Amino acid sequence: MRPPRFSARSEIAALKPYNSGLTLDDVAARAGGRRIAKLASNENPHGPNEATKKAMADAISRPFLYPDPSGRALVDEIAAQTGAEKSRIVLGDGSEDLLNVLARASLNAGDEVVTLFPSFPLHEDYAIMMGAEVTRIGLTSEFSIDTPALLKAAARPVRLILIANPMNPAGLWLTPKDLDALLDAQHPDSLLCLDEAYVEYAAGPDFASAATRLESHDKPLLILRTFSKAYGLAALRIGYGISNSDDVIRAMNLVRTPFNVNAVAQAAALAAMTRTDAMDQAVAHTLKERARMAETLTGMGLRVLPSKGNFLFVDCGQPSIEVADRLIDHGVVVKPWKQEGYETFIRVSVGLTWENDQFLEALSRVL
Ligand SMILES: *Cc1c(COP(=O)(O)O)cnc(C)c1O
Q1: Ligand 1 lined by 195 (C-beta under 6 Å)
Q2: Where is the Aminotransferase class I/classII large domain positioned along the sequence (predicted)?
Q3: What is the mean pLDDT of residues 86-92?
């Protein structure tokens, strides 16, 4: 019997499957017994500390209970550390969940969403899912953020301005001055959402989190954060949003599923946030290694964009799908970028020292 046919909503037809990368099992068969350097998903291979692992073990011992639907203990800690009001914090099953919730809570068909390009694909996908129109602000010919174009777009009454800061995959970021200019330029009818998935890696005088402006900003602002990157908890799926607007949080709470964050994830995130020793060490190692990798790659004659994330965006000068494919035979997984104009770029995560060495060695062979 032929399986029955069904047509999804018309907007869904425009979506492509998310490129979630290869798993270790996918790669093992081709890596010929080598250790595999998994550098395609910006995970933190250092992982969480012992206190976090213990909190997870404790939480999993009561699997029959529903989790706290509002994650009070964790929300209290997020409020204490970010300065956000407790009532203006929303938890998500990863920040990807919150991007989906945000799209469903805010976008009508035909609404305009402004993003930076190259972009985190889900920033566009969920807008398209809702039938919204995406306006991409591309990089300049020098591969920097086109701030004048961004400010001009932000000044229009678009529905949503959704950008990652630092950007994924480019690694670029808004300086504090550019952030303030964007907050100034924002049209009061627009919601500005800054996805700060990499904020822990971005500290320094040339970067400011929008959280430092939350209190004083008089237009709708939403900041998204995740425990998947620097906190090393990608498997658990947990992130959060903080806002200066009760309306934004109310809408997102209505749209999200009531128990969207499981109890193990809540407990782990709280423990990881309470004692940040492992995270601090992982970030320090990553920043050192990022500089070393950038220097080696530049020495190989490749263009490497400046990055404040735990990854580098590298122009290989040849189709990156082929480069990434050849790297697999050397036990190295990176993400070939597929968006228009960036088909020769790979995004490589900064991993453990041996992983980075294996990547650098393999890339020089492959090129
Ligand atoms: C990795 C990443 C996320 C996803 O985070 P999860 O919390 O794992 O869903 C969100 N936004 C950006 C820009 C990312 O790079």
Answers
A1: yes
A2: 37-361
A3: 98
